[in-house]
Automatic annotation (TrEMBL):
NCBIfam families: Rv3131_FMN_oxido. Residues 194-213 are annotated as: Disordered. GO terms for molecular function: oxidoreductase activity. It comes from the Bacteria. The lineage of its organism: Bacteria, Bacillati, Actinomycetota, Actinomycetes, Propionibacteriales. This is Nitroreductase. It comes from Actinopolymorpha cephalotaxi.
Length: 329
């Protein structure tokens, strides 16, 4: 929806949009995005310097994170009763410019998105064991609907598929442990006390007691690897988020869908974590599942359920993300 251009955004509106955007999840909390506010547009850029060359050579995970930040911007705009026109990859000549959002005055994407705003600060990745309690069918349907609203598909795994996914995740863990480049790179982002970016030791959750587990153990540091263990739920509730096609545009679609699913989950009191080692390596990605119809490009594997409260991960100061007029990313 694009309508009357309206006056320039106020400082308060910009601030609200920016603070919402940077609460988005990103792989290893790299926060690989920058924002330029010009008149009534927000341009969203990839921050190539913060991308993971070894773990994410194609920039796919970074683009999912950018998509998640864009969804947060749309939710924040909706709460300000601003409409948004979102153009993905608006300028082929500027590959780091990923999304251009134009803000109008016409009421926004409605109460549906605005209702997710309170969940932005309370959403977090929860790597602790979850209760053995099934997610209500109506909530499962609502989560699938959230993905569909963004042009993606959420496939809930049945019991056999859950076992298969867990088994595959264990194999993927062992596969990537052999890759020194990945491990060294991960060590720079995961572990320790952190007050700006990365995954602090305190957010790793307990070490899974079993080889085949529904959480990804990101620990690299010897002290983190020796942390105490816990038994995770016997019946994890896993879902695969997929898009019809693959490539940068689809990654941005998937990121927005992922974040919409996560915010709807948060609003319903659910915890979530990701088992993305399954989609990071092509051989595993291909083995993931083969639906006979519908979107077939898996972009994320989610674990959802009822979990204990966990602390938020840090973000850099909001100003660090703003591109000044004379800056070119
Ligand atoms: C594309 C993407 C992939 C991710 N993959 C994983 C993963 O495989 N395992 C995991 O534990 N967390 C994963 N995360 C979660 C990030 O580590 C998390 O978002 C980040 O540390 C910030 O913390 P927060 O989500 O609590 O705000 C992923 C996040 C994104 C956006």
């Amino acid at each position: 929806m694009n309508d009357a251009p309206g006056p320039e955004l106020t400082a308060e509106e910009r601030e609200l949009l920016l603070r919402a955007a940077i609460r988005a999840p990103s792989m290893h909390n790299t926060q690989p995005w920058r924002f330029a506010f010009r008149d009534r547009t927000v341009e969203v850029y990839r921050d190539i310097d913060r991308e993971l060359a070894a773990e994410d050579p194609d920039g796919r995970l970074a683009m999912l994170g950018v998509g998640a930040a864009v969804l947060n911007l749309r939710v924040a705009a909706a709460t300000l009763a601003l409409s948004t026109t979102t153009v993905l990859l608006p300028d082929p000549g500027r590959p780091t410019l990923t999304v251009r959002l134009t803000l109008g005055t016409g009421g926004g994407e409605g109460t549906e998105l605005a209702g997710l705003f309170p969940s932005i600060p309370s959403r977090r990745t929860n790597r602790h064991p979850y209760a053995e309690r099934a997610i209500a069918p109506a909530v499962r349907a609502e989560l699938a609907q959230a993905a569909a609203a963004e042009g993606a598909r959420l496939y809930w795994a049945n019991e056999d598929q859950v076992r298969w996914l867990q088994h595959l995740a264990g194999d993927a863990d062992r596969f990537e442990e052999q890759d020194l480049h990945r491990i060294v790179e991960r060590g720079a982002w995961v572990g320790g006390d952190r007050d700006r970016d990365g995954v602090p030791s305190a957010s790793l959750g307990p070490r899974p007691a079993e080889l085949s587990s529904p959480v990804r153990d990101l620990a690299v540091d010897p002290a983190d690897r020796a942390r105490s263990t816990a038994r995770f739920e016997d019946h994890p509730q896993l879902a695969v988020l997929a898009t019809a096609e693959d490539g940068p545009r689809s990654w941005l679609v998937a990121g927005q869908a992922l974040q919409r699913v996560l915010l709807v989950a948060t609003r319903n009191g659910l915890a979530a974590s990701l088992l993305n080692q399954l989609v990071e390596h092509q051989p595993f990605r291909e083995l993931l599942y083969a639906p006979s119809a519908g979107p077939t490009a898996p972009q994320a594997v989610l674990r959802l359920g009822h979990g204990r409260a966990v602390a938020a991960t840090p973000r850099r100061p909001a100003e660090a993300f703003v591109l000044r007029d004379n800056e070119t990313p």
